[in-house]
Target: histidine kinase
Amino acid sequence: MYRARLSLAFAALVALVCIQAAFVYWGANRVNDYAQHSRLASDIQSELLDLSANKQRLRVWAMQRLMDTDAQPEQRQRLVAAMYASAANLDDLVQRDLALWTELVRREGVSMPAEVPQLVGVTELLRDNIQAVEARLAQLVPLEQGADFPALWAELTQVFDMARGRDLRELINGAIAHQRAAVPVARAATERGLDALRAQAIGMALITLAVAVVLALHLKRRLQRPLDRLLEGTQALQAGALEHRVATGSNDEFDRVAQHFNAMAAELQQHRARADAARRGLEDAVQARTQELSAAHDTLQRLDQRRRQLFADLGHELRTPATSIRGEAEIALRGGDKPAEEYRQTLARIVGGVDQLTRVIHDLLLIAKAEADQLVMHPTPVDLQALLGDAAEQGAALGATLGVQVRLLHGPEGSGSGKSAQPADRGSVVLADADRLRQALVIVLDNAVRYSAQGTTVHIGLQQAAGENGADGSDAIEVVVRDEGIGIDADELPRVFERFVRGRRARAHRADGTGIGLSIAQAIVQAHQGRITIDSAPQQGTVVRIALPRVACAAPAAPQAAGARSGALA
Model:
């Protein structure tokens, strides 16, 4: 089986790689031991030389002290501390060198040099000698007139050079000489170890390469013939010869592949026959479907004509009562026998509402006649906080009949903190057509009120649009309308701004409505370079956000009379 041969080949290569890694690891450990021995010998020699040099400096200091010249105690303490440090380092290095030689003796069977354990004893003598030197020098005073200098100097020399009856100078000089001789020997051993490691690595690499080449040639020869047969079969299928079959009989993995390939070719041949029959049936079905689509097109044209007629009827039906209301309001205003000034203001608001209602009718007619809204805007600086107050009053009037409260949130950024509203010249001024923008706000409030349960509250307020800017890149302010109503299903949210679309919950809650209010509000907001978005969840309420670009303006347009507040509701 080809799979078994391939597994054996990989196993052989892995085994060779493991053997090579073992040789390299063993050789690297040997080289590392030799290199460590070389470093230790060099460090020991350096510490011995430093110790001897510092002791010689102490001799000079002692001479200067006896002669009462410039011999500072601080210099003596510094030299003694340096000798203690050298002795401690030397003790650590000697212990590590002894442990390394012990490991070499155990692993390779070499003999340990006699100087290695002797050097351990030297380090112990050094500590005693340094203590004796420190104690004697601390008692040293300048020579008096007529003192015996040779005898005193001989005593000092005895303290410097002898410890436990042994000559330290001879021991240290011998140790330095041994380390000087050991350094090149250790370096030579390291070089030999590196050469041996290099030779082993090259030899194992060559062996692995040779085995890999032999296995590759063998597998290639075993692989070439079945691959050629499969390639010939794929080329035949590509050319459309579905009757071609790959030869079998090798009883290996490729033979099973060839059998599956032949089964696939037979199945494709059957599929082709069925596809030809299905294509002929599809051509007949397409012809029949074309006729059905033509009939459906005629039906859609009739529906579109009905939609246009609907808008025309709405315009006609709304214009007549609006004109009548306007006439009655104007007569009431002209009447001299009306004593109540408040009543006159109420009639003024009615006239303004009628004007706005007429403009809404024009918008409805425009929607019915064109693919997109073409609203004529008359932008002026408008205090958005004041405009929200007008819209909230109209929304409250709508909610009063349905048992729904409309609450205007005050405070900076519409936080509802109970503080006074943010001044117009400090961030709530937008460049807008006040009537059109009020119309959009009232449409949103009307929807929030109409689709809220009795006893709930609709909130409206301002806030800074987080991460939002106007279309021209300016800072944006956001109107937020939040209700506690029936909500909108998630699958219907993407279509809320489409004309004539009303959701399942909206139709179940109220049978009236044409489904064009939000499309009009979107057109108005977009005409102001703004953006309107809706977030909602079933039975959890709906949040409408209208982001508008903020402008710097010290004198916003004064709010219109209350009669102009009445927006068209859709």
About this structure: The domain at 376-564 is CATH 3.30.565.10 (Heat Shock Protein 90). Strands lie at 162-163, 166-167, 380-383, 405-408, 429-432, 457-469, 475-482, 531-537, 541-549. Residues 369-373, 412-425, 561-570 have pLDDT under 50 and may be disordered.
